[in-house]
Specification:
Elements (H helix, E strand, L loop, with lengths): L1 H23 L9 E7 L8 E7 L3 E8 L5 E6 L2 H14 L7 E2 L15 E8 L2 E8 L5 H20 L3 H4 L14
Parallel strand pairs: 5-7
Antiparallel strand pairs: 1-2, 1-6, 2-3, 3-4, 6-7
Helix pairs in contact: 2-3
């Protein structure tokens, strides 16, 4: 019986703590919502693979995956001007009007080249989130219409968030920060 009372008292305290947090609407150590996240995937060669996220408060997080100078996590702070430049590029790209992916023949990729890199961009705003996954081996009329919008947004994200500082110099041909595709 003593054990039952201890469990009941502990459960009551836990429920009270949860209801207090829900009532105030405050969460401790809450991270800001991501505004945009971009992941570049590796290819058959030495393409840099990484994920970079820009939060609404300007916090930048980078996660080096392969063929980059900084493997693992790194962070920085974007300026208000950089935030605005990325927001403008997101608006101009109009990702919400695109399909979710351009990766297979069923997506309109014809022909489909193998062993290429890709980019996945996710935006989050008041309308929810939208992800577009673009594989650079996707060729054809549909890909030719979409690629310039994806490239411009991805390049703006890379430039404004200065991902070159974490990517470093590629091992093979190319220039620092250049994404091979």
């Amino acid at each position: 019986m003593q054990l039952f009372r201890l469990i009941a008292a502990g459960s009551t305290l836990l429920l009270m703590a949860c209801s207090t947090q829900a009532a105030t609407g405050k969460h401790h150590n809450a991270t800001p919502a991501p505004m945009v996240s971009m992941e570049r995937t590796t290819c058959f060669g030495m393409c840099p693979a990484y994920r970079v996220t820009l939060a609404t408060d300007g916090r930048v997080t980078f996660d080096g995956i392969a063929h980059v100078q900084t493997m693992g996590p790194a962070s920085a702070q974007a300026s208000p001007a950089q935030l605005e430049a990325v927001r403008a590029a997101i608006d101009q790209a109009d990702l919400r009007s695109l399909s979710d992916h351009y990766t297979t023949h069923a997506d309109g990729c014809s022909p489909l080249m193998m062993d290429m890199n890709g980019v996945k961009i996710t935006i989050s705003d008041a309308h929810g989130s939208k992800t577009v996954n673009f594989y650079y081996g996707c060729r054809g009329a549909i890909a030719n219409q979409v690629r310039p919008r994806i490239d411009k947004l991805a390049s703006t994200i890379d430039q404004q968030l200065d991902t070159a500082r974490w990517i470093g110099k590629p091992s093979g041909p190319g220039v620092p920060g250049e994404v091979i595709h």
